[in-house]
Design a protein that fits this description.
- The structure is a single chain.
- With about 375 residues, this protein is mainly α.
- The protein folds into 2 domains: about 150 residues, no CATH class; about 170 residues.
- It is built from 13 helices and no strands.
- The protein is globular and about 80 Å long.
- The chain starts with a helix and ends with a helix.
- One of its GO terms (cellular component) is plasma membrane.
- Belongs to the autoinducer-2 exporter (AI-2E) (TC 2.A.86) family.
- It comes from Mycolicibacterium litorale.
Length: about 375
């Protein structure tokens, strides 16, 4: 019987046998990935805050380590950095919201004047529409809103539920961030004890390499986003476009989604300029956004982001698209940092010479950040 099976196997083309062997292995890997994604999707309320807290920890960890090395208690350093960050972010948000509230009446008046001017142009311009046609179009829009009132109401109710989830997630982010900043290395050391002793140190080295790349990515993204916001916000303020500061803040937040975030949020500035200042200012705003994007793409990205993490632009685009399909805006935000982490971690994990691979990463991304002493084994054991 075994000879017959062996004969049947030999009768199949070697190419088909290899393709079959690759196929069932790839199917198992694909099934495992689908299972992991399904679990992450089901526990999104847990995974997303932890991922966001990890990104914030990558941004704040160097400051905490700096204070720790200067002799400050670890808990006090975490509290100081967190309170300072919350105060800065809270002050900026308060200022932006107040500016938005103060600027809304003037923006509404300018939009009304623009709509009136557009109506006059439609009537007296080349289209030569009648006022009755314009009124009918406006009435149709109002009727459409009224017909979909129930849907809009249900959307508002779902938004209320979303706000509850956001508050819950924000609290989870805060608590997770505190523990990661205070004892993240010890937590990682404890978790990695599930691996066999002969590969445990390699796994820990891969994790340290991935987190270092994440630190570089977050810091570089923060710098790029700040430059985008300052450049676009300054141009809007010089042109007298209303809500320049809130629009610049949106650009800053949008820039954390690489390649597309700043463009999408900048398009809102073009719309505001079009409604309030006219076509000429809208075109100037569009040119300003394109100029800032050129500065980012040809100067900031190669100098800052290129040293932080080496990822091909195609991989960035595919990661953003995949993250957006799987988890919307949050997925697009977290996709590239996840790829940056995995890129360095897998390189170190699979390298034959781990020390040489870490040195290669240092040459590509800059030296490792010397943080608190790596006494994970002593504290955990």
């Amino acid at each position: 019987m075994p000879d017959a099976v062996f004969a049947d196997d030999q009768s199949v083309s070697p190419l088909v046998r290899k393709a079959a062997a690759w196929s069932w292995r790839l199917l198992i890997i694909f099934a495992a990935l689908v299972a992991v994604l399904w679990v992450v999707k089901r526990l999104e309320i847990l995974f997303v805050p932890v991922a966001l807290a990890t990104m914030l920890a990558a941004l704040l960890m160097p400051a905490v380590d700096f204070l720790d090395r200067r002799g400050a208690p670890r808990g006090g350093a975490v509290a100081l950095v967190l309170l300072t960050g919350i105060a800065v972010v809270g002050g900026l948000l308060t200022f932006v919201v107040s500016q938005f509230i103060e600027g809304m009446p003037a923006l509404g008046e300018q939009v009304t004047r623009s709509i009136d001017g557009l109506r006059v142009w439609l009537v007296e311009g080349p289209l030569n529409l009648s006022r009755e046609q314009i009124d009918n179009a406006g009435n149709a829009a109002i009727e459409a809103v009224q017909n979909n009132q129930e849907r809009l109401t249900s959307g508002a109710l779902s938004t209320a539920g979303t706000i509850t989830e956001i508050v819950t997630g924000a609290l989870l982010v805060l608590f997770t961030l505190i523990f990661l900043l205070h004892g993240g290395r010890n937590i990682f050391g404890f978790v990695t004890r599930v691996f066999p002793p002969d590969v445990r140190e390699r796994v820990r080295g891969a994790g340290r390499a991935g987190f270092h790349s994440l630190i570089g990515y977050v810091r570089a993204t923060f710098l790029v986003a700040l430059v985008d916001a300052v450049g676009i916000g300054t141009g809007l303020a010089i042109m007298g476009v209303p809500l320049a500061l809130p629009l610049a803040s949106l650009v800053f937040l949008g820039a954390f989604v690489p390649l597309v975030g700043a463009v999408v949020t900048g398009f809102l500035a073009v719309i505001v300029a079009l409604l309030t200042k006219g076509v000429v200012y809208a075109l100037i705003t569009l040119g300003l956004i394109l100029a800032v994007q050129q500065l980012e793409g040809h100067v900031l990205q190669p100098l800052v982001m290129g040293r932080a993490v080496s990822i091909h632009p195609l991989a960035v685009v595919l990661a953003i698209a995949g993250g957006g399909v799987l988890a919307g805006i949050v997925g697009a935000l977290l996709a590239v940092p996840a790829v940056a982490f995995l890129n360095s971690a897998i390189r170190v994990l699979l390298a034959r010479d781990q020390e040489a691979e870490v040195q290669n990463l240092e040459d590509d991304e800059g030296p490792r950040i010397q943080a608190e002493p790596d006494d994970v084994e002593e504290k955990v054991d």
